[in-house]
Every structure is written in structure tokens, then in C-alpha cells.
Design goal:
482 residues, Growth Hormone, Chain: A, 2 domains, 1% strand, globular, transmembrane helix, transmembrane, Eqnu_transpt, nucleoside transmembrane transporter activity
């Protein structure tokens, strides 16, 4: 067969013919041209071929390669990014509840204003209500109402809003607001409402993105949530002791939050470029397209079916955070030292160490434990989750609000209280990590993202439910006794 005849070989596999390229009729030149080696690899990684000429419909060669091969997560880069976003999603909430003294003493206290501001006595309840109502609403809204654009695009705008509102918070800390306390109060609460609207979408979407990846990446978000609390508590303590000025302490405290949010914003741009993340993102999109091609493309996702399949784990997620927030920080932070011999007698340090630091460090340790072992299985996880309801009566019988209670104090040993507080924190971190990791696996892989978003909404709903019932405890201990 002549070289010219070989040029007309037909490839039956893809239906493409190879057209001859004439070189002035010179047979020698054609022989030299045809003897050049044909480069098949690494053409997948090169850009020397126009993508329009590739035989993959709506798919580049690099994307086709990513579908076939799973790249490694080099240096745990994607894991660290989700860890950072786990920190950033709970940062606004932790920053505001840990800064309670800044609001009720420095900004709205009698020493600053010369009179008792009417909202100081229930400032924490108002703050938590303004924080969690929009968070709950927008978490569920984010599931059922389709928002155009990639999931990561929602994260970008959510972080931008968080950053802008923290800048406003820093400016408010810089200025003297003693002549307009009501204005400061309402601006702060409006900022909290808007901030948590954005944060509701942010947190829910992060869980939806992590659900596309192996379960440990959902665990990374949970770990980041718990690291956030520890980080915030340490920053709060450090800001109080590094500077004697309450104003400067507040400024540096909120600037730290702004710095973390900026890191989260930067990692948003890095994540879609990472080959490991793109592998799972491409496969998730492919599964969604396959499902749409099999069904009516206009059909909404089967939310009822997904919720029903995931409901055992959604129950676990909800109850874990319901119990935790029913006692922390409402009861936890108002428990006073019981013994004169306990090694911490300072009220500020007692609250910061035994309440905030103990809980946040314990929750962080608990969220790390699933890396080493996983028990119980998803079938029996509800048993230890339900048993955690016993923490509520235990805390109520500690030295909680000692000056206004008629319910007897049964737990008078500070070390017993501290030990049980540590178990509550560790179990919260460990069981929540398991429940959040189990939830996406309860449904088919193409529904995992929605199941992960349901889990994020159940988490926020549990937090909100726990906060609501915590309003009952001051009345309970002051009106119930025997």
C-alpha cells in the first residue's frame, strides 16, 4: 500500500477520515512526514489541540481524564480548605457570643452611659434570636429555592457580605457611641441579622460541596466548626490581657475575624482550580446530567424522598445540637464556682476556662476522633445521641444562677462539673461528626449534595431549638423546687 493510500484510511470507531496533506508531490517528503512519531500522550494534558475538534461532547480532554483518574489531594490541600471554611462558617456566631462583655459593659453598660440600658439584661437572648432566626430560614430556603450559579459562587458572595459587616463592626468599636446607644444597639442587631442571612447560605452550601467528596471532607468542616470555638475563646482571652484598653481589645478581636474571613475568601478561588476537587465536581455534574436525561429535565429533585431516606441521621444531627445549645452557652456560662478550694476563683477565668475553653477544646477533640475509629454504625447512632438528653437535668442541678434559684443545687463539686462538661463537649464533637458524615451516604450518590444541605439545615435547626428552650431555664430554676 502506498503512502498516499494510507492517508485515506478510515477510522470506523469515530467516523473520521484522515485527509492527505500534499507536499508538492514529493514522495520523499511525504515518507519523512509519515515516519514522524504520532504523539498520543501526554496529549490529555496539552493545549495544542483545539477543544472543538475533540471527540467529547461538551467535555475537554482534561475533564475527560479527570473523570477516569482520581488525582491525589496533595498536601491535604482540599481538606485544609474545607477546614478553613468550617472555621469561617461559625466565626460570626462565636465572635459575638464571646464578646458579650464588650457589648453589655463597654458599649451599653452603666459606667459608659451613666444609666442602665433597658436591653442589657436580656442582650444575649436578643442577640441569639437575631442570629439564629435568619440562619434557620436561609438554610432551608437554600435547599428548596434554586439559585442560579455554582455552589461556590454562593460561598463567595456570602463571605463578601460577612467581611463588609465585620468592617462595620470594627468601625463601631472605634467610635464613641455613648451619645447614641439605641442607634448602636439597632445597628448591631441589624448587622447580626444580615450577617446570619448570608451565613445561613454559606454554611449550608459548604456542607453541600463537602458532600460531593469522600466523608472525611464533611468531617473537616465539622472539625473546623469546633476549632472555631477554641480559636475564638483564646483570641477573646488574649485580647483582654494583651491590652488594658477595652476599645483596643475589641478592635483587635474583630480584626482577627476579618483576617480569617479573608483567608476563606482567597481559598474560594483556589478550590475550583484543584484537580482533586474538580474530579469529584465533574463526576457529580455528570451524574446530575445522567439523571436529568433519564427523567424530565424540568423535574425538581425529590426532596421528600431524600428527606425520608436521610431522616434517621437528620434526627441525630438535630438532637445533638439541640442538647448542646440547650445548655451551652446559656446554662454553662452562668454556672458559678461552688468551692472555695477550687483552683480558679476569678469569675471571668472560671467562665472562660470551664465553659468556653472546655467546650470548644472538647468538641474539637471529639471531631478529630472519627479519623481514628468510627463507632457506632449509622444504624445505632441514635442510642448515644438520645442519651445525651440527660445532660440537661445535670446542668440544671449545678450551681447555675445561685442567687435567684429555688431548685436545690445537687452538683457542688467543681471537678465533677468540669469532667461532665468535658464529656458533653467531646460527645458533641464526635457524634455530630459521625452524623454529618453518615447523612450523604444514606441516599444515592447523585442526591448526596442535597442530603448534605439537609444535614446543614438540621444542624442550624437544632441550634435554634436549643437556644429557644434555653430561655426557659432561668424561670425553671427560680420557680420549681421541692
Amino acid at each position: 500500500m502506498s503512502y498516499r493510500e494510507r492517508d485515506y484510511l478510515y477510522n470506523e470507531k469515530n467516523g473520521a477520515s484522515i485527509q492527505p496533506r500534499h507536499v508538492g508531490g514529493d514522495e520523499t517528503n511525504e515518507r519523512t512526514r509519515l515516519q514522524k512519531p504520532v504523539k498520543l500522550q501526554p496529549s490529555w494534558e496539552e493545549n495544542n489541540l483545539p477543544e472543538a475538534e475533540l471527540n467529547f461532547k461538551n467535555l475537554t480532554m482534561d475533564e475527560a481524564s479527570l473523570q477516569i483518574h482520581t488525582p491525589p489531594d496533595k498536601y491535604s490541600f482540599v481538606y485544609i480548605i474545607f477546614l478553613i471554611h468550617g472555621i469561617a462558617t461559625l466565626l460570626p456566631w462565636n465572635m459575638f457570643i464571646n464578646a458579650i462583655d464588650y457589648f453589655i459593659i463597654f458599649k451599653l453598660g452603666g459606667g459608659s452611659l451613666g444609666y442602665t440600658f433597658p436591653y442589657v439584661s436580656n442582650f444575649m437572648q436578643i442577640l441569639t434570636f437575631c442570629s439564629q432566626v435568619p440562619n434557620v430560614i436561609f438554610n432551608w430556603f437554600n435547599i428548596f429555592v434554586p439559585i442560579k450559579g455554582d455552589l461556590t459562587l454562593r460561598i463567595m458572595w456570602s463571605i463578601v457580605i460577612n467581611i463588609l459587616l465585620f468592617i462595620i463592626t470594627i468601625v463601631l468599636a472605634m467610635v464613641d457611641s455613648s451619645s447614641w446607644p439605641y442607634g448602636f444597639f439597632y445597628v448591631t442587631m441589624i448587622s447580626v441579622v444580615v450577617l446570619n442571612m448570608a451565613n445561613g447560605v454559606y454554611q449550608n452550601t459548604v456542607y453541600g460541596m463537602a458532600a460531593k467528596l469522600p466523608p472525611k471532607y464533611t468531617g473537616a468542616v465539622i472539625l473546623g466548626n469546633n476549632i472555631c470555638g477554641t480559636f475564638t475563646t483564646l483570641v477573646c482571652i488574649a485580647s483582654q490581657y494583651v491590652t488594658t484598653s477595652q476599645k483596643m481589645a475589641a478592635i483587635w478581636y474583630f480584626i482577627t475575624a476579618l483576617f480569617v474571613l479573608l483567608i476563606g475568601f482567597d481559598t474560594y478561588f483556589a478550590l475550583p482550580l484543584n484537580r482533586f476537587y474538580r474530579h469529584y465536581d465533574i463526576n457529580d455534574k455528570k451524574q446530575q446530567e445522567m439523571r436529568k436525561s433519564a427523567d424530565d429535565s424540568s423535574e425538581r429533585p425529590p426532596f421528600g424522598y431524600i428527606f425520608k431516606k436521610a431522616s434517621p441521621q437528620l434526627y441525630n444531627v438535630f438532637l445533638i445540637f439541640f442538647v448542646t445549645l440547650a445548655v451551652y452557652p446559656s446554662i454553662h456560662s452562668d454556672i458559678k464556682v461552688s468551692s472555695d478550694t477550687f483552683f480558679i476563683q476569678d469569675e471571668f477565668l472560671y467562665k472562660q476556662v470551664l465553659c468556653f475553653l472546655t467546650f470548644n477544646v472538647g468538641a474539637m477533640i471529639g471531631s478529630i476522633l472519627p479519623t481514628f475509629f468510627i463507632w457506632p454504625s449509622k444504624k445505632y447512632l441514635w442510642i448515644p445521641v438520645t442519651l445525651r438528653l440527660l445532660y440537661i437535668p445535670f446542668y440544671l442541678f449545678c450551681n447555675y444562677l445561685p442567687n435567684s434559684r429555688i431548685l436545690p443545687v445537687l452538683v457542688t463539686n467543681d471537678y465533677v462539673y468540669w469532667f461532665v462538661a468535658a464529656t458533653m463537649a467531646i460527645s458533641s464533637g464526635y457524634l455530630s461528626a459521625l452524623a454529618m458524615m453518615y447523612t450523604p451516604s444514606t441516599v444515592e450518590s447523585h442526591h448526596a449534595s442535597i442530603a448534605g444541605m439537609f444535614a446543614g439545615a438540621a444542624l442550624i435547626s437544632g441550634i435554634f431549638g436549643g437556644i429557644l428552650i434555653s430561655f426557659l431555664w432561668p424561670w425553671f430554676v427560680s420557680h420549681v423546687g421541692w
